[in-house]
Write a structure and sequence with these properties.
This protein has helices at residues 13-19, 56-75, 130-142, 150-160, and strands spanning 2-7, 24-28, 41-44, 81-85, 88-90, 100-102, 104-107, 114-117, 123-125, 164-166, 171-175, 178-181. It is of the alpha/beta class. The strands form three sheets. It has a seven-stranded mixed β-sheet with strand order 3-2-1-4-9-6-10, with helices on one face.
Length: 182
């Protein structure tokens, strides 16, 4: 299994990197808060610089989708993939038996409430399902669906295709400097 993360806000990698051995750390040169000094860093351009779409939220959504596509392009299809946001890490071994979305605690925007979120952009992908994942994310980008939350849209599409939601203990998310674990 290959483990990847992607970041614009890379500052949390100092913590998550202690728990995860990333094969790939994808850093968007068009939007980041610093280049981490970790093994596996690949720098690239999402070609979505600040101010290019209607607002910052839309830009963020498209950067996430394009980053997910780039992870697959870099790591290929020969291994299962574990893709986690740069502020998410696992403290326990998870038995991934099929492709799925990894639930984490998250801030329920626009509210400040933190709750378990079942469609974040954290995925375990069996190698036989990589094409399905890629085509789903690619559809979001091609159709310019950035007005819709990227994680919810992709997650919903994958759930309809039979993917699982993993609600496992030991999945941690750094939110506003505090660690929340399932």
């Amino acid at each position: 299994m290959k483990v990847a993360t992607f970041c614009g806000k890379c500052s949390t990698l100092g913590i998550t990197g202690k728990y995860m051995r990333h094969d790939l750390v994808l850093v968007d040169l068009d939007y980041n808060d610093g280049i981490p000094e970790l093994p596996g860093v690949v720098m690239w351009r999402s070609e979505i610089p600040p101010g290019s779409l209607m607002n910052e939220m839309y830009e963020r959504r498209m950067r996430i989708a394009k980053s997910l596509l780039k992870v697959v392009q870099v790591l290929g299809k020969s291994d299962d993939l574990l893709i986690l946001d740069s502020d998410v890490f696992l403290t326990k071994q998870v038995n991934f038996d099929r492709s799925g979305i990894i639930a984490t605690y998250a801030k329920m925007k626009p509210l400040e409430h933190i709750a378990l979120f079942e469609t974040p952009s954290n995925y375990f992908i069996k190698k036989e399902d990589i094409d399905t994942f890629y085509s789903t994310v690619d559809q979001y980008v091609r159709l310019e669906l950035y007005r819709l939350p990227v994680d919810v849209w992709i997650g919903t599409q994958l759930l309809v295709k039979g993917w699982k939601v993993y609600k496992e203990p030991g999945v941690c998310h750094i939110i506003d400097g505090k660690i929340y674990c399932t």
